[in-house]
Amino acid sequence: MKIIRTVKSAKKLTSHLRLKNKIIGFVPTMGYLHEGHLSLIKIAKKKSDIIFVSIFVNPLQFGPNEDFEKYPRDFKRDEKLCKKAGVDYIFYPKRKEVFPPGFAANVNVVKITEILEGAHRSGHFKGVTTVVLKLFNIIQPHIAVFGQKDAQQAAVITKMVNDLNINTKIIIAPTKREADGLAMSSRNVYLNNEQRKDASYLYKALEYCKESLTPPLSKGKGDYIDLERIKRQMYKIIDSRPSVTKIDYISFNEYETLMPVNSIKETGKNSKILVSLAVRFGKVRLIDNITVLIKK
Amino acid sequence: MKIIRTVKSAKKLTSHLRLKNKIIGFVPTMGYLHEGHLSLIKIAKKKSDIIFVSIFVNPLQFGPNEDFEKYPRDFKRDEKLCKKAGVDYIFYPKRKEVFPPGFAANVNVVKITEILEGAHRSGHFKGVTTVVLKLFNIIQPHIAVFGQKDAQQAAVITKMVNDLNINTKIIIAPTKREADGLAMSSRNVYLNNEQRKDASYLYKALEYCKESLTPPLSKGKGDYIDLERIKRQMYKIIDSRPSVTKIDYISFNEYETLMPVNSIKETGKNSKILVSLAVRFGKVRLIDNITVLIKK
Predict the structure, then answer these.
(1) Closest to B159 (Cβ–Cβ): which among A104, A129, A140?
(2) ipTM of the complex in this document
(3) DSSP class of B82
(4) CA neighbor of B292 nearest in space, from B224, B241, B222
(5) What is the CATH number of the domain that holds A116?
(6) Is the minimum CB–CB distance between A111 and chain B shorter than 8 Å?
(7) Coil, strand or helix: which one is A96?
(8) Which residues in chain A are closer than 8 Å to B19, comparing Cβ atoms?
(9) A159 contacts in B (CB within 8 Å)?
(10) How confident is the model at residue A267 (pLDDT cuts 50, 70, 90)?
(11) Whether residue B154 sits in one domain with residue B40
């Protein structure tokens, strides 16, 4: 496994690999790797000849009051995990290598970025799409794997790739969870003991929702499912935990377009719904989601 | 020569050419080709194995009160000219092939796009960078040639390519002019006889400027050249023509960064200055520019 620190040397290598018809698989990360990241690497390995992982805490996707400075970093640990996972190259650039002084370009996707996380984290997705497009141009991957845990990010990047005709196939990998259901996240290390225990209730609320929407919904019955009632119950499940400070949102959206779903009646046959939420435990903000297939 | 109408078939072809290590040269155009475009093709041919020309009148780069609808189009004529010029492939997509319903992505470069043409044509450069990035992803060119006549466009695209790590080398080709100095442009067909005659004074004003700034500027002398006096004289030369309706701007800027140059004193040794202007003849708006090397 090799570590690459500059854009120039990465490009030289990936151009060479492309010419040799090696399939390049790519997992972009902000480091502090966990089982979730490793599952993305595993999926990428199955579909590629050469695996790149990037480790870069992207300043553009953090708001001024967010956790860029204290975001957990441990390159030595990440390096070991990547080696063990069979990664071929880690792209680990310095900040000024990616964003030199005078950097002035950006990539944006409108509408789909203005709701959910976008409504609570101004400029976040513009930062994500800008850095991901840059990384795609540097690594030149045939495939790139993202986690379903960041569901809106996955939808936004898929939309960017389609709209801008980018030559990379996006694969979305299922969320990895702890034994009690908590979605794995580098930010989980921020949680104290009480918060960590209470955080498992996010998944409990999502599971409650899934059960309420689980097929078979007998003929016509699905139309009368009351999403507002389900949502109220989910709020209750989460709000019952003492260390929860604020629920930013609980939301039902169409899976690909992220258009809000107000009633099951509106959805098509066999439509996929994204149920997502964002919850604050003090200064720690966690997100999670599930998808539900509505069979009518 | 072949004509390609879809993104899918273009990508299939260019991916194949890339694998075969063919150097792809690309000249993006809005059609209605003239000697200027042909000179770009000639330059691209010298540096590539396979030449692509795109012909697409990009709706995103026209303002609501601009000439998108009446912009001159003649594909049959363009086809003949490309064939004669030795083009291998014309990419000639329909509008909805490039911008399908629900298209929501954009690429933008800040600052450098907010002056000169950007100040007079809101959203113009965002439209340019968005379509050029898309075309680059579709054609996957090793090199792309743009005309110096659209000097700010050339600077903006160069900045986008650098900032977003795009794997295409940008070449800027000198402006082709008619016998009387008028810069070639597809929009010149809009001019009536009087306007056409008067339009040659744009270049006369630029030539006057070049002479006023021509080396050798004896030791220290350059510092005292009065740019405002030169600019006033250029306004006079152009304003003297009866069919001139409005001078949008005459401007001195650093060549690459487009930072305004207020005095020769400010510039470095051997710095390159862009002298650019935009002038309206009734509804017809023409731009032109020259570069001047300031030798101190």
Answers:
(1) A104
(2) 0.95
(3) H
(4) B222
(5) 3.40.50.620
(6) yes
(7) helix
(8) 18-19, 21
(9) 104-105
(10) confident
(11) yes
